[in-house]
Amino acid sequence: MQTIKKINTKDKKKFYGYLNLKLIGLICEEEDWLANLSNTSALLGLLVEDINWAGFYLYKKGELVLGPFWGKPACTHIEIGKGVCGTAAASRSVQIVEDVNKFEGHIACDAASRSEIVLPIVKEGDLIGVLDIDSPITDRFDKEDGEYLKSFVDILNKYVNYEDVR
Q1: Which of 20, 104, 146, 152 is the most exposed place for a label (fewest CB within 10 A)?
Q2: What is the pLDDT of residues 25-40, one digit of tens each?
C-alpha cells in the first residue's frame, strides 16, 4: 500500500492532481464497486481539508439510497428533487451550496454542516447516484472545486463497474 500524505489544498490544481492520482492508485485494479466507493470516501475524508462528511448516495428504485461514506451516520433515503443531493440527481448538475441554512429544503444529516457540494454520477446516460461532500465551514466550495471534482467523478466512471449497484 502506498503512503498517503496530506498536501496543501490552497493550490487546487496541485491538490486535485494529487487526489486524482491517489484515487487511480486505489481503484484501478479493484473490480468490486463497493470496495472502490468505500476507499474513495475514505480517501476524501483523509485528504480533503475542512470537511465533515464525504460519500455516495446511489440511485435505486427511483430514489437515492445511502452508499459508502466517511463521517457521521446519515440519512438513508432521499427523494429525487429533494435537498441538495436530490436536486443534483434531478438536474444532473453540480450543486454548490455556500450556506446550507439558506438552501430551501436542505436535509440536515449532520447539524455541523454549513456548506456542501454534490456532483451527479452519470455513466453512459444513466444516473448512478451522487457524490456528496459537506463542510463545517460556510462557503467552503467554489466552482473551481466543482470542476476538479468533475474530473474525480470521471475517474470513478472509468474504473468502477456499477452493474451490481441497482
Answers
A1: 104
A2: 999 999 999 999 999 9
